[in-house]
Design brief:
The complex is a heterodimer of chains A (112) and B (115). With 112 residues, chain A is mainly β. Chain A is built from no helices and 11 strands. In chain A, the strands form 2 sheets. In chain A, strands 2, 4, 5, 9, 10 and 11 form a 6-stranded mixed beta sheet that branches. Chain A is globular, with a radius of gyration of 13 Å. With 115 residues, chain B is mostly beta strands. Chain B is 0% helix and 50% strand. In chain B, the strands form 2 sheets. In chain B, strands 2, 4, 5, 6, 9, 10 and 11 form a 7-stranded mixed beta sheet that branches. Chain B is globular. The mean pLDDT of chain B is 92. The chains are: A mainly beta (112), B mainly beta (115). Chains A and B meet through strand 5 of A and strand 5, strand 9 and strand 10 of B.
């Protein structure tokens, strides 16, 4: 049972445009959500997080939106840059610091 | 400050062979984790250790054992490797306090092939 789902395995976006990556979850006990970015042959690196008490969190070009009623979160990257080409994983936990459940990942390709 | 290091980077095993994957962190983190990544499956937690001397099963522990040797090191052992254990293995660590916790930092991974 996949509790965290990323339904788009891949996404291509023009450089300079907005990239929107989506993630859905089924476990209503999840309280804390994160996005990780992974380049080939490297480990994932933390990008941005959001607690369920918020509906938006921004960090530079990256913004995460959380819609608790829809059990949906999204990552917006504006403007997209070639270095953003990577696999993005969303992850969730029941509280900050507990075990993470990861989605299957979305491969983002930024077209110059 | 090397962060999280893993050895080896690559390994090929025959079915039935055993091996230990090593992981070390130099960030004074108390929690450590082992994940495997398979195509279309994301990262799945194998085992984790919330502190030195404690270990707990994750989502996919069968066929694996772990040892939290000290605060820095957390090893993963395959006693009798099977082709289904062909995967990329990631070690991670984090600082988890009573009130505040921080994000997990990952090592570069070990690519294991079992033939």
């Amino acid at each position: 049972d996949q509790q965290v789902k990323q339904n788009s395995p891949s996404l291509s976006v023009q450089e300079g445009r907005i990239s929107i990556l989506n993630c859905d979850y089924t476990n209503s006990m999840f309280d804390y959500f994160l996005w990780y970015k992974k380049y080939p042959a490297e480990g994932p690196t933390f990008l941005i997080s959001i607690s369920s008490i918020k509906d938006k969190n921004e960090d530079g070009r990256f913004t995460v939106f959380l819609n608790k009623s829809a059990k949906h979160l999204s990552l917006h990257i504006v403007p997209s840059q070639p270095g953003d080409s990577a696999v993005y994983f969303c992850a969730a936990s029941r509280r900050h610091g507990e075990k993470l459940t990861f989605g299957t990942g979305t491969r983002l390709t930024i077209i110059p | 400050n090397a962060g999280v290091t893993q050895t080896p980077k690559f390994q090929v095993l025959k079915t039935g062979q055993s091996m230990t994957l090593q992981c070390a962190q130099d960030m004074n983190h108390n929690s450590m984790y082992w994940y495997r990544q398979d195509p279309g499956m994301g990262l799945r937690l194998i085992y984790y250790s919330a502190s030195e001397g404690t270990t707990d099963k994750g989502e996919v522990p069968n066929g694996y054992n772990v040892s939290r040797l000290n605060k820095r090191e957390f090893s993963l052992r395959l006693e009798s490797a099977a082709p289904s254990q062909t995967s990329v293995y990631f070690c991670a660590s984090s600082f988890d306090g009573q009130i505040v916790s921080y994000e997990q930092y990952f090592g570069p991974g070990t690519r294991l092939t079992v033939t």
